[in-house]
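Sharing a chain and its predicted structure for anyone who wants a worked example. Both blocks are below, sequence first, tokens second.
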Amino acid sequence: MRIAVLFGGRNGEHEVSCRSAEGVLAALDPARYDVLPVRITRAGRWEVGGAVGVGVFAAVRALRAVDVAFPLLHGPFGEDGTVQAALRHAGIRHVGSDAPACAVGMDKECTKKLLADNGIAVAESVVLRSAARSLSHREREALGLPVFVKPARAGSSVGVSRVDGWDRLGAAVAAARAVDPKVLVERAVPGREVDVGVLELPDGGLAVSPPLEIGVAGGRDFFDFEAKYRAGGAVFTVPAALGEPLGARLRALAVRAFRALGCRGLLRVDFLLGDGDEPVVNEVNTMPGFTHASQFPRMWQAAGIDYGRLLDTLVETALSR
């Protein structure tokens, strides 16, 4: 089976994607797969086989020879549906969601609206669309402190800040706007952070992983970029110590989120458990990190599905579409 693994990309998560690809490329069984690594540079040029620095359309034409593509891309120009749309246009099957679900899942504002419309609780937030826009006094009163300031369309906590005093809001918004001109200022939801994975099977059924709880080490205020990608920055507990009624509720909400967003293949849903363990969706990832240490593979390992079998399932599901 010929499979192309796409990695890198034009964004601040380039290295994260490369790390994910290292794990996937090493784990794909060479007796089963003929693997074509495809690197996308930070400048947006593609390296396919012997061709170096080609444009996206020439690269996609070259990929028509593969059976399935695995767009292992995080962030803008990859996880946002850009590449998925090009693959779909060329008739190339690929792992994961199609362009519309990727685009919605990447945009935190759109994700919140769609989830809320489907009865899933999300944190209250205000969207700042222009450099001239700031929070009004009424909005500050409604959100309270602390708040989190986030680029609307980025992942891996790039450009995210926790603000404990309104005098720091301007600097936090500027940091987020350097990543994306659309910025969210979000009410903090104090409590436990728990992730749940959804995996589509080749027959179209959905499997849901055991929950994984994130503990932040080193005195950090939240699960930031350093905590995510530096050794010892976080402690993962899987399965998380949750009572079965709560665990069942999180699994049901994760499936509802998958269907509400129109996802395919996989989804990681990140919950915050606020007062009374009331679940609130923090974010979703249509293509979560895929190193051996990443949350998504760890959750499925706890379910008895090892890394290699997880990849096989994703590929088989893509081929069955």
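Comments welcome. The first helix runs from residue 14 to 27.
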